Amino acid sequence: MPDKVTIATVARHAQVSRQTVSNVLNAPHIVRDETRRRVQEAIAELGYRANQAARQMRTGRSRLIAVRIEPTRDGINGSVLDRFLHGLTETADAAGYRVMLYTATGDDQEIATYDDLLGAYELDGFVLTGTDHGDPRTAWLAGRGVPFVTFGRPWDAPESHPWVDVDGAAGTAQATSRLLANGHRRIAFIGWPEGSGVGDDRRAGWRTTLTAAGLDPDGLHRETEDGVAHGERLMRDLLATPEAPTGVVCASDSLALGALKAVRAVAARAAVIGFDDTPVAAAVGLTSVSQPLAAAAASCVELLTGVLDGHPTDPHVLLQPALVLRHTA
Amino acid sequence: MPDKVTIATVARHAQVSRQTVSNVLNAPHIVRDETRRRVQEAIAELGYRANQAARQMRTGRSRLIAVRIEPTRDGINGSVLDRFLHGLTETADAAGYRVMLYTATGDDQEIATYDDLLGAYELDGFVLTGTDHGDPRTAWLAGRGVPFVTFGRPWDAPESHPWVDVDGAAGTAQATSRLLANGHRRIAFIGWPEGSGVGDDRRAGWRTTLTAAGLDPDGLHRETEDGVAHGERLMRDLLATPEAPTGVVCASDSLALGALKAVRAVAARAAVIGFDDTPVAAAVGLTSVSQPLAAAAASCVELLTGVLDGHPTDPHVLLQPALVLRHTA
DNA sequence: CCGGAAACTTTGAACGATCTAATCCTGCCG
DNA sequence: CGGCAGGATTAGATCGTTCAAAGTTTCCGG
Asked: Which of A204, B14, B169, B274 would disulfide-bridge B42, Cβ 3.0–4.6 Å?
């Protein structure tokens, strides 16, 4: 293995001082053209790469972004995080940042981890997913002045910090419109109990679209925890009512899959639309609302690096989902 | 924000020298009990955390492990990587390491990324997933003397480097035995074209189990690319033969899902078993072979940190999968 | 009470980059 | 031809840690 190439090696090779090499890297405009060219050649020739640890010691910046990887609770939503992570890594890479993972069980343990990561690695920023009402984590980070972005709106105070989100209401609105366009008039919604920002948002899209079409949404919605079995139960329920729906929009693919089972079990012909476009949806041919995860990830990185590199952008990004048509609607 | 706490702050506070604090952290046994206690109190009181960048500069070790996150090709396998990543992060954490992500498209681009990562962050090691026959990446890493572990055996040279893998043959053998125990005699296998180590391994488990039971596997297997549609096509094919199978073991959940569709389409009652226990399998009630991903991740970290911290373990770990029984077998 | 080994602690340098401030050019004007 | 402005370049200090070597204390046996 050849000797380690440091900035001093490059400087010697290009017959300039260390600082000039540093300038070529960090402030090229202050170096004369001819000198810059010579230095760049030396860099290329030697395969020099700036040591981040040394740079970080001086500048206090690590070019590292931390993201939490969750314990894959349902499994069905795991792949969403997966795609998001990939997009994040790719965009961060392009912006000269790297992604570091961490896990934590529980909010206070997570905050301890922040402390750890900041102390040991001087992380530049955090990307949080799945924030809830009154999340203590965002408060802690904001209090310490640590840059961060959340994927998901802070429902209680939308202006409080930078976020990126997907317009869930627009997604369910699209789904509902699709069913309306196909001639459906009794369109149900199966979602989560009131109180979760995301769930309420998705329900709202369905409700307003129905109302706008002059239809009455009352009695056509059901709430439950997420899960295939729950979806199936509620859909059987709906199908058994006197005015059974001919189509249903669901807050998740799990619920939709359950609904689909119920429909098939009673040999009905109701249309079903899910949410998240998970692999499950693709596998069983379920029409579903797809979140632009790569774009969301890119926006997160953009917001964060914008703050870090001193050219901040609009700190609130709301992306539009798209309906992926398959067999069920 | 309080001033940064460095080793010097702690030293002053505990009335010892910097080096003694360093010794308490890295070689506690050479410090007298009473001194150590005093230093540890100071550390706790001040909330001191060793700066990794500075440590790394001196030691050349970053306590960072790199893992590739793939572009989620199929989507169905995405969640496997996801669970693996989570396990990796958790175990690495416990061993005092952190996980850094990277992506790359194509082997040579990936090698360039290695160079980048090693040069800039002095990564301690790599975890590779999905290695193929004659992988240039492992050769490059080995040539540079960079520690790494692969999740997946190097089929062409099993002794060449440390790896962790799941015994696919044992998995399909379990699946086949299960079907035998349930009275099935004509048990088919749908897998991938010959040549992929993983695929061949999974087929072998089925074949040897059938043979051991005195049954003839000939004519009962089909090969195709991965995908639901392919699985469905081949299963229809099998069901249409004079001696149609009453059960089928598949090399993946995608194939199994397709097979299941075919079975239902022709109103047959054949049992179906998939592989990987993806969320899809859980959602549709498909019996599937489950890989112990958390254990695999833990083994990867153990192997890697073992090499790094100088107490190497057996460099080849083969884990046993488990059959998850659901409705289809 | 002293010599000396063992146990423990401290000092100074080094890792590889950037910051600050000082020095060196170069061209231009009086 | 000297002086000077301004850009280009360089020398030295510094970030927080660990290594190597030197210094100090403690403990025993003679």
From this structure: B14
Q: CA A34 → CA A21, A244, B268, distances in Å? A: 13, 78, 78
CA at A19, C1' at C21: how many angstroms apart? Answer: 13
Is residue B151 within 8 Å of B164, Cβ to Cβ? yes
**Helix/strand/coil for B285:** coil
The alpha carbons of chain B give a radius of gyration, in whole angstroms, of 25
Vertex A67, ends A62 and A68: CA angle to 5°? 140
Is the pLDDT at B134 greater than 90? The verdict is: no
* Structure token pair of residue B37: 């206690």
- Per-residue confidence (pLDDT) for residue B130, from 0 to 100: 78
pTM attached to this predicted model: 0.90
Alpha helices in A253-292 (DSSP H): 253-265, 279-284
Query: Which candidate, B257, B249, B212, places its Cα nearest to that of B233?
Result: B257
Residues B180 and B187 sit within 8 Å (Cβ to Cβ): yes
Higher pLDDT, A197 or B270: B270
Q: Is the sign of the CA dihedral A265, A269, A275, A279 positive or negative?
A: positive
CB contact under 8 A, A49 and B1: no
Q: What is the pLDDT of residue A76?
A: 47
Q: How far apart (Å, rounded) are the C-alpha atoms in residues B187 and B189?
A: 7
Please tell me whether any atom of strand C lies within 7 Å of the Cβ of A55: yes
| B211 touches A: beta carbon within 8 Å | no
> Would you state the structure tokens that stand for residue B217, as one six-digit string?
């596997």
Distance, CA of B75 to CA of B134 (rounded, Å) = 26
Which position has the token pair 């061993």? B95
Subset of residues 71-110 in chain B with CB less than 7 angstroms from any atom in strand C:
none
A312 confidence band (pLDDT: 50, 70, 90): confident
Contact B119 A47 (CB under 8 A): yes
Neighbours of A78 (CB within 10 A): 26
CB contact under 8 A, B79 and A75: yes
Asked if residue A4 keeps its beta carbon closer than 7 A to nucleic acid strand C, the reply is yes
Tokens of A319: 């992306």
The answer to whether B287 and B263 are in contact (CB under 8 A) is no
Helix (H, G, I), strand (E, B) or coil at A186: coil
Task: Assess whether A23 (CB) lies less than 7 A from strand D.
Answer: yes
Average pLDDT, integer, range B62-68: 94
Nearest to A99 among B53, B76, B100 (CB): B100
Give residues with Cβ within 8 angstroms of B276, minimum separation 6: B76, B77, B80, B252, B253, B288, B289, B290, B291
At a CB cut-off of 8 Å and minimum separation 6, what does B240 contact?
none
pLDDT above 50: residue A18:
yes
B52: helix, coil or strand?
helix
Cα–Cα distance measured from residue A275 to residue A250, given in angstroms and rounded to the nearest whole number: 6
CB atoms within 10 A of CB B307: 18
In chain A, which among 91-110 make CB contacts under 8 A with chain B? 93, 98-103
Per-residue confidence (pLDDT) for residue B81, from 0 to 100: 84
For residue A265, give both structure tokens: 């079990």
At A52-70, the pLDDT tens digits run 999 999 999 999 999 998 8
- Other beta carbons less than 10 A from residue B82's beta carbon: 26
Instruction: State whether residue A310 sits within 8 Å of chain B by CB.
Output: no
Residue A273 pLDDT > 80: yes
